[in-house]
Amino acid sequence: MDDVYIVEAAFTGEKGFPQERTVEVAVCRMHADGNDFDTVYQSFVHADPMDIGKNALDYLSENYGITADALYMAPDEEIVSKELLSKIQDKECTSFNVNRTFGQFLCFEPWDLTGEVYLFVSISSRLPDDMGSDLVDTYHKMFPDNPMGVEGRTAMDRCLMSTAIMMRLRQNGLF
């Protein structure tokens, strides 16, 4: 088995592309045996607060703790998308919800990771039904002591949560 790259992101809303956009990405690499991991990449994505609007800014603040300043000062989308591709191209990738992260966002321009990565099924698809479908809730059910020390607000927090879940699944032979 190879290492697996877990990708999580923050978005301006629930609808998916083209109505919404990606404003933060994060990647962790879980070692093949499931016993260790590395953080690989994290970046906010530039967005002019005037362009994305108040509803998106409120959504980002409430769901991810992202401020207008963080978006305004971030690198351009084209730069971040190229950096992300350089980290995960030709790698085996997943996320807690592959359909949402990749299917609704990262498989469209400028990200367009279609054909650039090998996608595994969603991490959530390997969980028992009683775990639910929300990443933060699932993480806290599986790890009440919060070994990653995260809140689940930023894309990196969510990536670390997904990685912890993935490691447990790999160690138990479920992924």
Please summarize what this structure is.
The chain has helices at residues 49-64, 68-72, 77-88, 98-106, 135-142, 155-171, and strands at 4-11, 22-30, 37-44, 92-94, 118-119.
Task: Give an account of the 3D structure.
The chain is an alpha/beta fold. It is 38% helix and 17% strand. It contains 6 helices and 5 strands, in the order E-E-E-H-H-H-E-H-E-H-H. It has a 5-stranded mixed β-sheet, sandwiched between helices. Strand 4 (92-94), helix 4 and strand 5 form a beta-alpha-beta unit. Helix 5 (135-142) packs across helix 6. The radius of gyration is 15 Å and the shape is globular. The model has no long low-confidence stretch (mean pLDDT 94).
Overall geometry comes to globular
Structural class: alpha/beta
Strand content: 15-25%
> Runs with pLDDT <50, length 5+?
none
Percentage of residues in helical conformation: 25-40%
Kindly, what is the distance between the CA atoms of the first and last residues, rounded to a whole number of angstroms? 11 Å
Let me know the average pLDDT: 94
Radius of gyration: 15 Å
| Order of strands across the main sheet | 3-2-1-4-5
Can you count the helices? 6
The biggest sheet amounts to:
5 strands, mixed
Tally of DSSP β-strands = 5
User: What's the order of the H and E elements?
Assistant: EEEHHHEHEHH
Secondary structure topology:
Blueprint lengths: L3 E8 L10 E9 L6 E8 L4 H16 L3 H5 L4 H12 L3 E3 L3 H9 L11 E2 L15 H8 L12 H17 L4
Parallel strand pairs: 1-4, 4-5
Antiparallel strand pairs: 1-2, 2-3
Helix pairs in contact: 5-6
